[in-house]
Write a structure and sequence with these properties.
Distance between the termini of chain A: 50 Å
Strand content of chain A: under 5%
Strand content of chain B: 25-35%
CATH class of the largest domain in chain A: Mainly Alpha
Oligomer: heterodimer
Shape of chain B: elongated
Number of domains of chain B: 2
Shape of chain A: flat
Order of helices and strands of chain A: HEEHHHHHHHHHHH
Strand order of the largest sheet of chain B: 6-7-8-3-9-10
Order of helices and strands of chain B: EEEHEEEHHHEHEHEEHHEEEEEEEEEH
Number of domains of chain A: 2
Radius of gyration of chain A: 26 Å
Number of strands of chain A: 2
Helix content of chain A: over 70%
CATH architecture of the largest domain in chain A: Orthogonal Bundle
Helix content of chain B: 25-40%
CATH topology of the largest domain in chain B: Rossmann fold
Structural class of chain A: mainly alpha
Bound molecules: adenosine-5'-triphosphate, magnesium ion
CATH architecture of the largest domain in chain B: 3-Layer(aba) Sandwich
Largest sheet of chain A: 2 strands, antiparallel
């Protein structure tokens, strides 16, 4: 082949490669565009605002460097309290929701008629807006004698209880409501992967003299691990960002006992003067905490997850 | 050691009766092979023995004891599933070990057994691998090892060699026969490959649509079939069966003597034209057009060519008569057996 021809082939090849490169980038462009517009830009903005003292009307009133972070982490105690409450809430929700979802899924596994009814019943709360659920529960738990819980108590001759107004029960009520609301949805996800486990594996286990319990721990649970891991991450991040139910049911009270992080951020951003920067700083810290938890999950648990 | 007996067993899925009123005894210590076309109920039968697909009605006995509803764990039966059913989340070693652990076999003994049986199936190098990273044949061998290591009274195998290559299959076949000779336990082996059945079985149980067509040793199945189905299931190519007035007559391709004329003492002698000729080496296989029928012939005689006229001769003892329903008519079943032989001559 002559030198010229060779060069031509190469340049043709290069042009084709360039065109491929261009097409592939054009394909991902829309996604990247929206990622920048709705995720990266607000994030950068948030970090920027967290370095200022200002309000919603004028976010960049005065530059104060890392003062907001210093305030949150070393001066005030309410941020730590809020982080602690959110942490407790998340830990309980994760254990409760994951555990109960698995239990319900296992329970609904057989193709009985009752189970299709149960599935619908469990799933329905997921369809109701979280705000409505919060209102319903506020009514159910109302300290007035009209509240369902107190009506039941009275029927047994017990004194009424201010469920949402007492430090000892407020958090429990929020956990109860959110668990009730989400369990059907997660149980359904787990149910679908339960049903994808071939029956022969269970039959083989029965022939291998495995007890029901052992089969569950040694076979079912490992087979579910990819879904459980995925749910662990989504439930953790989701619960850390709990807002609407708390906002309606307790508004963070009584005292600071249900002051979740997002409620904290909301109050600093919109209810106090010149503390938007502080709210932003708290937002950044929330992001960092979630990132750390997720990394920790991946680091410690992913090895145990069995991918097909 | 165990004998399995089915008594009037029926198995239905909904309204679909897959097996109906089945009576069958599987002898203790024998290598029994269940053969039959796909969907005839072989797996269903094994599952009833294992206790994982209970009979709809009737009884399954093991050594005379009713086990129809006994928990599979208490049966001392191991099964190799048709689609392996190995535990995907466990390593090869854990797969083999699972049943031993459940039965509380001490650790040293477990290690010894695992090593021994991993060797037998040739998986020693893969003990720490997950099944997902192994080939179909290797997975099948995990299932084999997992069943063998239990050293059960009854060993059920549902097409355990179907995914192995020809060489490995022959090797494993020999291994299984040796294992059976060593263990002297009851083996029940399912296949739809008649060659495998003939090669391995002490007793063949041939099934069709949930019914047992014949239960006998390979020799008897081949030489003395009870019905047209059995006659045509065993043998390559299968037995030729043609109409004989209202009845049928059959003869094996390898029992036909080809000649240019009718031979002496051969009651069956009919003329045909060679359609195809396949040289198999020591033997030649012809397809011959004879009236409306095509007849397969397998013979050492390779002298005939395409479109040659030949006369196919069959001796009286190589002729099998069947009634219209396909049941065998033997000498002794009828008073006029010689009449049948004479009618064949045409
Ligand atoms: N769980 C089930 N539900 C409904 N019908 C079934 C079920 N299992 C098997 N059958 C039916 O029972 C019949 C026998 O099935 P079986 O699995 O015993 O066949 P087989 O002889 O093992 O076939 P193969 O050689 O293809 O494995 C088939 O017609 C099948 O459709
Ligand atoms: Mg089968």
């Amino acid at each position: 082949m002559s030198d010229v021809a060779m060069k031509q082939v190469f340049s043709q090849r290069r042009r084709r490669k360039y065109r491929n490169w261009l097409v592939s980038y054009a394909m991902v462009m829309p996604a990247i565009f929206f990622l920048i517009l709705f995720t990266l830009y607000p994030m950068a903005n948030l970090i920027q605002i967290s370095l200022f003292r200002g309000s919603a009307a004028n976010a960049y009133k005065s530059y104060i460097g890392l003062k907001n972070y210093e305030q949150l982490l070393f001066v005030r105690t309410d941020f730590w309290n809020s982080l602690k409450q959110t942490g407790i809430y998340t830990a309980v929700i994760v254990l409760l929701v994951l555990g109960l979802s698995v239990v319900f899924a296992v329970w609904m596994q057989d193709n009985r008629k009752l189970n299709s009814i149960a599935q619908t019943v469990f799933f329905t709360p997921h369809l109701v807006a979280s705000i409505s659920c919060a209102f319903i529960f506020q009514w159910l738990l109302s300290k007035e004698s009209s509240g369902l819980f107190n009506t039941v108590l009275r029927a047994f001759g017990l004194p009424s209880w201010n469920w949402l107004g007492e430090t000892s029960t407020a958090m429990g009520c929020i956990i109860f409501m959110n668990t009730w609301k989400s369990i059907g949805y997660y149980a359904l996800i787990i149910l679908s992967s339960l049903k994808s486990i071939p029956l022969e594996i269970y039959e083989a286990a029965r022939l291998d003299s495995s007890t029901k319990m052992r089969t569950f721990w040694k076979i079912t649970l490992p087979m579910l691990s990819p879904q459980l891991f995925m749910l662990l991450i989504t439930i953790t991040t989701g619960s850390f960002k709990v807002f609407d139910s708390v906002r309606i049911m307790t508004e963070g009270g009584p005292g600071n006992s249900t002051q979740m992080l997002c409620l904290y951020i909301y109050e600093y951003a919109f209810k106090r003067n010149n503390s938007l920067g502080m709210a932003s700083a708290a937002g950044v810290l929330l992001m960092v905490v979630l990132l750390l938890i997720t990394l920790l999950d991946f680091g410690s648990l992913e090895k145990k997850v069995h991918y097909q | 050691m165990a004998e399995i007996e089915f008594k009037k067993v029926t198995k239905a899925f909904g309204s679909n009766k897959v097996i109906e009123d089945l009576d069958l005894t599987i002898q203790d210590g024998k290598f029994t092979v269940l053969v039959g076309a796909s969907g005839c109920g072989k797996t269903t039968l094994l599952r009833m023995i294992a206790g994982i697909g209970p009979a709809t009605s009737g009884q399954v006995l093991m050594d005379g004891k009713d086990i129809t509803d006994l928990d599979p764990a208490k049966r001392d039966i191991a099964m190799v599933f048709q689609n392996y059913a190995i535990y995907p989340t466990m390593s090869v070693k854990e797969n083999i070990e699972f049943g031993l652990k459940n039965r509380k076999v001490p650790k040293e003994e477990r290690e010894k057994l695992i090593k021994e049986y991993a060797e037998v199936v040739g998986l020693s190098a893969y003990l720490d691998r997950k099944p997902g990273t192994l080939s179909g044949g290797q997975r099948q061998r995990i299932a084999l090892a997992r069943a063998m290591v239990k050293r059960p009274k009854v060993f059920l195998m549902d097409e355990p060699l179907s995914n192995l290559d020809a060489k490995l299959r022959v090797a494993m076949r020999t291994e299984l026969i040796e294992m059976h000779n060593r263990m002297q336990t009851t083996f029940i082996y399912v296949t739809h490959d008649q060659v495998e059945a003939m090669a391995m079985a002490d007793v063949i149980v041939l099934m069709d649509k949930g019914k047992i067509m014949q239960e006998a040793s390979p020799e008897v199945i081949y030489r003395d079939p009870n019905n047209v189905y059995t006659a045509q299931f065993i043998g390559t190519p299968p037995m030729n069966v043609i109409a004989l007035d209202d009845d049928k007559v059959g003869f094996r391709p390898e029992k036909i003597v080809l000649a240019d004329r009718k031979l002496d003492n051969m009651p069956f002698a009919r003329e045909g034209v060679v359609l195809t000729r396949e040289m198999l080496g020591s033997e030649t296989q012809y397809k011959v057009q004879m009236g409306a029928d095509t007849i397969m012939v397998k013979t050492p005689n390779d002298s005939y060519k395409y479109e040659d006229k030949v006369v196919m001769n069959v001796a009286a003892e190589d002729l099998y008569f069947f009634d219209a329903a396909g049941e065998r008519i033997r000498r002794g079943d009828v008073s006029n057996y010689d009449e049948y032989v004479r009618r064949v001559g045409g």
